[in-house]
User: What shape does this take?
Amino acid sequence: MAETALHTPGKNYTFGTVLTAMVTPFKENGEVDYESAAKLATKLVDDGCDGLVVTGTTGETSTLTDEENLGMFKAVKDAVGDRCKVIAGTGTNDTAHSIQLSKRAAEIGVDGLLIVTPYYNKPSQAGIQAHFEAIASATELPVMLYDIPGRAGIAIAPETIIALSKHPKIVALKDAKADYQSTTTVLANTDLDVYSGDDGLTLPLMAAGAVGVVSVTAHVAAAKYRILVDAMLAGDLATARAAHFELDPIQRAVMSHVQGAVAAKHILNWQGVLPNTVVRLPLVAPSETELETIRTDLREGGWEI
Assistant: This one.
């Protein structure tokens, strides 16, 4: 069993502690809006984020070209500089393609890589391990594994994560598995920095030893996540629990009714942060009923929408 020290505020975690899984803004004609992406990145850092995940699931990476992915990495890195960590979503279900994209991201100067479980192929656990190890060995950048079986179609077994933790470049895990026992096993047997990949599970995962969150809802509530995460790192459960409850209706608004990128773009547009709500197919705009449900949740959270 790994000897894990109590996580504390101020420690220099490789990727920070409050990370937003950024949307990719588009222009009305469907082209990537790099200027809006840079402005959004700057706002998120101003609001309390110390890490940004660029072109992950929420960034609609599966409908971006390689050049668009790379353009987003550069736009965000240029905008925030050293104010926060920029983690590039370079994982695909093609190991060779992922390696190529990761190498090009490294040339741009990103601070790390987010590598998702290879989706659709449904490899064995040995194949999953080999996939991650090959990508992690291809650059000098630190790597965050992304375990999200609901989208990938297959989970990374805790035993596989434990084996992968021995790779010198694999330092973190974005846990979107919603399997507390699996997460507990990983935390008890590795020194990985574990991040909640489910916004609403940030508090319980941090109670077990996670260091923070990679959040979609942080687009519109980064300051509140900063309070929750810092309180948990400091052992102040009362403050963290209060923030957890205050975040609940906002999390529901962003994550419960439509795909997270769709909801986040609408709320950011309502706030005047993004100029439009454009997403790429197969994502589509919410219905009026869905939009009203989102507004109802936001009003419950004290927002005037």
Remarks:
- The longest strand covers residues 170-175.
- The first helix runs from residue 34 to 46.
- DSSP finds twelve helices and eight strands in the chain.
